[in-house]
C-alpha cells in the first residue's frame, strides 16, 4: 500500500466531510481539484462547453457518492480522476454516436477489459506493462495511429489529418495493428 501524502490525507478528510454533507468541504475540494479534472476532461473532449458540462456531472457524482470513497483503493485524486475519465469517455462516445463520426465499431469486450481483475493496482500496472510491450512490437506507423486513437481520443479522420495521411491508410494501419495486438493477447 502506498504511503499517504499530506495532500492526499487532507483530500481524504475533505471527502469524508463531503460524505457527511459538508458544503464548505465540497467547495474546497472543488476549488482544489476542478482544474485537474477539467484538464483531463478537456483533453478527451476538446470542446470547452462539453467539458464544462462533464465537469459539473463529475462533481455532482462526487457530492452524491462521497460516502462510497474507499481510501484503501486509492487516493481521492485518483478516485476523482477515474470519475472524470469515465464521464468524459462516455460523453465522447455519445457525441460520436450522435454525429456518427467514429470510423470503426468498438469491440466492447476489448474496451471494457477483463471483469474479474477489479481495481488491483499491481495487476493494473502489470496490464499496462503488457500493453506497452505489445504496442512497442508494432511497426511505428501502426503504433502511432493506435496510440493517437486510444490515448489521444482522436477519430480516424482526425488522425489522418494530423498525420497528413489518407484516411484509408490510417484505417488500414489501425486494422492491421489491432489484429496484431489481438494475436498478441489472443483475444477471440
Q: Mind explaining what this structure looks like?
A:
With 188 residues, the protein is an all-alpha fold. The chain has helices at residues 6-19, 23-45, 48-65, 76-99, 108-112, 121-136, 140-150, 156-163, 167-185. Helix 1 crosses helix 2 (23-45) and helix 7 crosses helix 9. 19% of the residues are buried.
Shape: elongated
- What is the arithmetic mean of pLDDT? 81
Helix content: over 70%
The counted number of beta strands is 0
Any low-confidence stretches, pLDDT <50, length ≥5? 106-118
Proportion of beta-strand residues? under 5%
What count of helical segments does DSSP give?
9
Order of helices and strands: HHHHHHHHH
Structural class: mainly alpha
Terminal CA distance: 35 Å
Main β sheet profile? none
Query: Rg to the nearest angstrom?
Result: 19 Å
Oligomer: single chain
Primary descriptors:
mainly alpha, elongated, 73% helix, 188 residues
Topology at a glance:
Layout: H1 6-19, H2 23-45, H3 48-65, H4 76-99, H5 108-112, H6 121-136, H7 140-150, H8 156-163, H9 167-185
Helix pairs in contact: 1-2, 2-3, 2-4, 3-4, 7-9, 8-9
Amino acid at each position: 500500500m502506498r504511503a499517504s501524502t499530506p495532500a492526499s490525507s487532507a483530500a481524504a478528510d475533505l471527502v469524508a466531510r463531503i460524505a457527511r454533507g459538508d458544503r464548505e468541504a465540497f467547495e474546497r475540494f472543488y476549488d482544489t481539484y476542478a482544474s485537474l479534472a477539467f484538464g483531463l476532461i478537456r483533453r478527451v473532449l476538446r470542446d470547452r462547453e462539453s467539458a464544462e458540462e462533464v465537469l459539473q456531472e463529475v462533481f455532482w457524482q462526487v457530492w452524491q457518492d462521497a460516502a462510497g470513497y474507499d481510501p484503501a483503493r486509492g487516493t481521492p485524486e485518483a478516485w476523482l480522476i477515474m470519475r472524470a475519465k469515465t464521464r468524459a469517455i462516455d460523453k465522447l462516445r455519445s457525441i460520436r454516436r450522435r454525429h456518427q463520426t467514429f470510423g470503426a465499431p468498438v469491440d466492447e469486450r476489448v474496451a471494457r477489459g477483463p471483469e474479474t481483475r477489479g481495481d488491483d493496482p499491481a495487476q493494473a500496472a502489470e496490464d499496462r506493462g503488457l500493453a506497452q510491450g505489445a504496442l512497442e512490437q508494432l511497426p511505428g506507423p501502426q503504433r502511432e495511429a493506435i496510440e493517437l486513437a486510444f490515448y489521444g481520443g482522436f477519430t480516424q479522420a482526425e488522425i489522418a489529418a494530423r498525420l497528413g495521411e489518407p484516411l484509408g491508410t490510417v484505417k488500414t494501419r489501425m486494422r492491421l495493428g489491432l489484429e496484431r495486438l489481438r494475436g498478441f493477447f489472443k483475444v477471440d
